[in-house]
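Hi Q.,

Before the meeting this afternoon, I wanted you to have the zinc ion prediction in hand. No need to reply - just skim if you have a minute. The sequence and ligand are here:
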Amino acid sequence: MQRIYYLLLGLFMSSFVQAQDCEKAWMHYERRVELSQRTAQEFGVEVPIEKIQIDFLGAPVGIPFNYTTKEYSPYSDHQKLEKDGNLLLHKEANRSLEDLKAIAQQVGIELKLNNTYRSYSEQKHLHDKLGGHQAEKPGYSEHHLCTAIDLKNVNNKKFRWLLQNAFAFGWVPSYYFREGTKIKKEPWHWRYVGTLAAKKFRCAWELEINRCIWKLR
Ligand SMILES: [Zn+2]
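Predicted structure with the ligand bound:
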């Protein structure tokens, strides 16, 4: 009897926590989109609505100025990648990356990581060192989200393979197909957004992606 009581209590508590999480994520999402759009307007950038996608954590994808705040912390679900130099990555993103790595390996492609999570101060250091054309301002980087990765040695062959395969695993090249950013195109930068948002992203950029795959032959 007592066991059933605990089970029911657990169920009730988890649904309560889940509802709260959704509310919080939605609140931040609205604020992030609003801030991103306002900043885009200030910089004279127009972002077509069909290019804006929302990732599995409720954060906007494919718009410039991804404002991230300290309160918005999906990082609670991160894990350390011991094999990859203790880098931090969201659990779900890591699971999907492992699957992607496995199928890449079958065709002789190695997906190794250069970078994953970056803190505000790490981003500040990078921005000061590289400047605004190669690094976002601190607080505006997708690397704060714990779902973005920089891959090692992305040549044409690897990038082409990723464009043909990674969307199905929930990954998008969010700094390659992007409206109005000052940052140069980055074929090595991929962000895990979940399979649904990745599919939508693929559709929104269909022409550009197909053209790119064709050019990389
Ligand atoms: Zn990056």
